[in-house]
Structure formats: structure tokens, C-alpha cells
Amino acid sequence: MKFDKVLSIETSCDDTSIAIVKSDGFVLAQSSANQDLYHKDYGGIVPEIAGRNHSIQLLPLIESCLQKANLEWSDIPGIAVTNRPGLMGSLLVGVITAKTLALAKNIPYIGINHLEGHLLAPFLCDDRYKPPSGFNYPYVALAVSGGHSQIYLVKGFGEYQILGKTIDDAAGEAFDKFAKMVGLGFPGGAIVDKMAKEGDIKKYNYPRPMIKDKTINMSFSGLKAAAKRQIEKLSIAEIKSECVHLCASYQEAIVDVLIAKLNLAVNQVGAISGVVLTGGVSANSRLRNRAEEWASQNNLTLAVPPIRYCTDNAAMIGYAGVQRLNLGEFSEQSLAPSPKVYPGDFHV
To answer: What is the mean pLDDT of residues 142-161?
Structure first.
């Protein structure tokens, strides 16, 4: 059996997303909901609240997505769902929903690694976006989000090698913790990006941990600690007046490290013409601009999916899922969510 499309479910953290994706990567429809307002007062994501909201939002979003695509359940031959890695309570809601629908509709389903979805996001397309001309395997991918910061060599579908990763905090976590330090609230990354546009990137000299290290691994905990020490020296009034400069200088340090490590990865791999920037932090405007400049200077084809396909979304899960279903892979009803990747998902 060949699958021309799937309905996909993404609930790995706090974003609930449903999509219908064709086998060629065309996104027929996507319906998503975030939970920022529910977690804002807590300064971070509360797993129990995230899981509860997924259970409320999921079925209405599925109906919305089917309506957007003008499809019925009889038009859906298969289901893809994120089952790893992520928050267990959030994953559980998505996996149980997928398993139940697969039974009720008598169609196959497949559990997908959330990170694989991010790595394949540049192959998505719709009426407003398509991948760069000639973009294909192999390529180097920088996947940066609140929970992950890794650089991969993507040799082909299902062939992923980890070249380097953060040894402590993820870049997105470093952004969010900094935003909390200066009183910008949650989620912090987007607010820091906005504030930084008005600031001086050289006003504060923050460290760039491991930037000269010859491995592709990264570290952001030392930068976060340095920022904390700097902020503690300032009064509340000074933090307010200096906030744009603090944000710009801190953001620049993170971006410097990410670009340096991406450059090192490309040089070590060699014979690579394509590079991907993906994950929630790839929405950062400074990172996008710097990556574009770097890629242009090095004659590299840079693929950066639009923000709707960079943050946690079901379209990327659907693309990975329809490919695996067409390879004859299916999940059993015994499939369980996992907070970690499976052994063998990635090579080191």
C-alpha cells in the first residue's frame, strides 16, 4: 500500500498541532494552538498543565484541520504521531489519541521521533514556501530549541549522525532563563530577540563558551552564569534602562557560538553544499540573518523553514511519518511514549 498523505499529531511539549501532509511534503492544512498564557504566570512550562490542555485541544484541532483541507476521515490512509522525546504527559495524550483513532478508523499509524521531524522540516512546502532550488541530501543541520541544541549530518532519510551537541543547557533554555533574570517574562526567547534589535551588541562582553574548542559540542551554562553575575550588579532601574543592551549582547554571544560550531561542522564534514537551520530558536531574527550572511560567504545553500515549520509543529511529523509508512514501517498498539530518543535513532 502506498500512502499519498497522513494526518499527523504533535504534542511533545506545550504546543498542540495537527497537520495533513502529502508524501511530497506539501502541507494541505495545519491547525495549532500554543499554551503561553497558561504557563506565563509560572515562568516556565508546567508539565501537568501542558498535558491537560493537549487533551482539551486535540480533537477540536483535528476537526479543524480536516475542514481546512476539505477532507473526511475516509480520505486519510494513515496517522503519524510524535512519541519521543518530550514531556511524558504531553506525549501520552498524543500517542493515546493516535492509537485510538487508528483502531476506530482501521488505519495504520507510526510513532515518530520529534527531532527527526525538525531535521526534515526543510522539505515541507505549501502555497507560500518551498525548499531552495536543488536542496537535497546530504546536508548539515543545526537544530536549536528550548530543549535541544545539536548539529547533525543528515546523509539521507533515516540516516542521521550527531556531530555535536550542548553539554549542558540548550540555547532556547539559555534565552528563557536570561529573560526571566531581566524581568521580561515567559516565553523569553522572542522577547529577547525583539528587545535586542534596539540594543548595542558590544555593550557587554559576555563569554563565548567552547567557541575555540575543536569539538563541535557547545555549552551555554557558563554564559548564563556570567549574565546572572552581571545583572546582580545592577539596580532595578539600571536593568530597565540597560535591558536592550543586555539582550543584544547576550543574544550575540549565543549566536556567535552557534554560527562558529556550524562552520566547524561544515569544515569537518567537507563536500557539503546544503545547510539547515531548524527548531524553535531558528525563529530568532539575528540567528537567521547571521546564518544567511555566513552561508552566502561560504557558497552554501541555506534552508530555513518558515517559523510555522520551525517551532514544534505537526507538519514535520507528518512528512517523516508518511515516508516511513511508505517504507512499510508501522507501529503496534503497544507503542509507548518515551522521554528519550531510541538507541539507533541517531549515530554518533
So the answer is: 94
Q: What per-residue confidence (pLDDT) applies to 100?
A: 97
Contact between 3 and 297 under an 8 Å Cβ cutoff? The reply is: no
**pTM here?**
0.93
User: CA–CA separation, 216 vs 210, rounded Å?
Assistant: 9
| 69 vs 182: CA distance, rounded Å | 43
Among 145, 169, 114, 168, which Cα is nearest to 277's?
A: 145
Residues 69, 123, 308: CA angle, nearest 5 degrees: 60
Place of cell 528587545: 195
Residue 170, Cβ density class (10 Å: 0-12 exposed, 13-18 middle, ≥19 buried): buried
Per DSSP, the three-state class of 4 is coil
What's the pLDDT at 37?
Answer: 64
Lookup result for grid cell 551554562 = 221
CA–CA dist 117, 19 (Å, integer): 13
The confidence band for 287, taking pLDDT boundaries of 50, 70 and 90, is: very high
Backbone dihedral region for residue 116 (phi beyond 0: left; psi -120 to 50: alpha; all else: beta): alpha
pLDDT of residue 50 exceeding 80: no
Residue 79 confidence class, pLDDT cut points 50, 70, 90? very high
Query: Can you tell me the distance from the alpha carbon of 273 to that of 238, in angstroms, rounded to the nearest whole number?
Result: 46
First to last CA, the chain: 34
3-state helix, strand, coil in the chain (%, to 5): 45, 20, 35
pLDDT surpassing 70 at residue 102: yes
Domains and CATH numbers, the chain: 5-129+309-326 (3.30.420.40), 139-304 (3.30.420.40)
Q: How far apart are CA 40 and CA 221, in angstroms?
A: 23
The upper half-sphere exposure of residue 86, i.e. CA atoms within 13 Å in the direction of its Cβ, equals 29
